[in-house]
């Protein structure tokens, strides 16, 4: 438990730094939230087609852990966002995550360029299953593989 406490505790300087961040409320569905802007800013869409998206993302310092590596939480967020984007379908305005599993196979350093691809594996009504691959673009090394399932209700026809 002591190791966990040490890992999670922030120094006074770190705490002050986080507490001093100013952000303004956003208009849901119109503007990105602070979280979205912080976590996915910088993603470049390379190719998009129905059921598939390929993007490039250069690892920024803001998403690294204490060891200077891309944080596992940031990887999870890339899987979440990639799966959600590729699963969007006409007539389903909002999807919620049902399940997500991620295999963390490697890591990335600041300024590494990543290739993130997401593909719909299948659909059944408002349910969609996706797979998201995060690779080091220069080496081809697989950093993470995520399976992400989402659900959304179709608009009523009444």
TrEMBL record:
GO molecular function per UniProt: fatty acyl-CoA hydrolase activity
Keywords: Acetylation, Cytoplasm, Cytoskeleton, Hydrolase, Lipid metabolism, Mitochondrion, Nucleus
Protein location: Cytoplasm, Cytoskeleton, Spindle; Cytoplasm, Cytosol; Mitochondrion; Nucleus
Xref: CDD domains: PaaI_thioesterase
InterPro entries the UniProt entry points to: ACOT13 (IPR039298), HotDog_dom_sf (IPR029069), Thioestr_dom (IPR006683)
Reactions performed catalytically: a fatty acyl-CoA + H2O = a fatty acid + CoA + H(+)
Domain named Thioesterase: residues: 68-121
Family from the record: Belongs to the thioesterase PaaI family.
Protein name from the UniProt record: Acyl-coenzyme A thioesterase 13
Organism of provenance: Populus euphratica (Euphrates poplar)
Organism lineage string: Eukaryota, Viridiplantae, Streptophyta, Embryophyta, Tracheophyta
């Amino acid at each position: 438990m002591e190791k966990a406490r040490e890992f999670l505790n922030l120094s006074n300087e770190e705490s002050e730094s986080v507490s001093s961040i100013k952000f303004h409320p956003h208009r849901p569905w119109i503007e990105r939230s602070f979280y979205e802007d912080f976590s996915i800013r910088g993603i470049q869409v390379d190719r998009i087609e129905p059921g598939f998206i390929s993007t490039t993302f250069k690892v920024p310092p803001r998403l690294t852990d204490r060891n200077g590596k891309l944080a596992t939480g940031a990887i999870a967020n890339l899987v979440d966002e990639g799966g959600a984007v590729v699963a969007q379908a006409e007539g389903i305005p909002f999807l919620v995550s049902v399940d997500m599993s991620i295999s963390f196979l490697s890591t990335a350093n600041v300024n590494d360029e990543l290739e993130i691809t997401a593909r719909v594996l299948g659909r059944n009504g408002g349910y969609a299953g996706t797979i998201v691959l995060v690779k080091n673009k220069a080496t081809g090394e697989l950093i993470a593989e995520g399976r992400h399932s989402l659900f959304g209700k179709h608009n009523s026809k009444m």
